[in-house]
Design goal:
A four-stranded antiparallel sheet has the order 2-3-1-4, covered by helices on one side. It contains three helices and four strands, in the order βαββαβα. Strand 2 and strand 3 form a beta hairpin. The protein is globular. The protein is an alpha+beta fold.
């Protein structure tokens, strides 16, 4: 069995259907004795260019281990699912289980947002007393 990385983009109006779609694809993989090593739901993101006059879409990343027949079946289901705008399958040398750079970026961005939120009130409090005596 080989390792693959699959990214597929779903129509934004079908975002609520993504968990059901992922479960269906995981079922196909499990039915054929494959393994899902990594599954990341990146959510709605801005597209680099419009696809079917859409500017946002829902992204999903899967790293799986399966045979060629399973990949053919998955790609067939991607191709004939109107909700899937684009899909990309890449053969990998080994299983990838670490968080993707997209997820690392999300975590660091949320951590930076929390830290920035904490420092702004402290800066504002430090500036406010200094401004008050100057005005008085």
């Amino acid at each position: 069995m080989r390792h693959y990385e699959i990214v597929f983009i779903v129509h934004p109006d079908q975002s609520e259907q993504v968990p059901a779609m992922v479960d269906r694809y995981k079922g196909v993989i499990a039915q054929r004795n494959g393994v899902v090593h990594r599954l990341e739901d990146w959510g709605r993101r801005q597209l680099a260019y419009p696809i079917q006059k859409l500017h946002k879409a829902h992204y999903v990343l899967m790293n799986i281990e399966c045979d060629g027949e399973t990949i053919a079946e998955l790609e067939h289901s991607f191709r004939f699912n109107d909700a899937v705008l684009r899909h990309l399958t890449i053969k990998m040398a080994k299983a990838v289980v670490d968080p993707s750079p997209m997820m690392k970026e999300e975590k660091s961005r949320s951590m930076m947002g929390d830290k920035a939120g904490e420092t702004k009130p402290a800066d504002a409090a430090a500036e406010a007393p200094a401004a008050a005596p100057a005005a008085a």
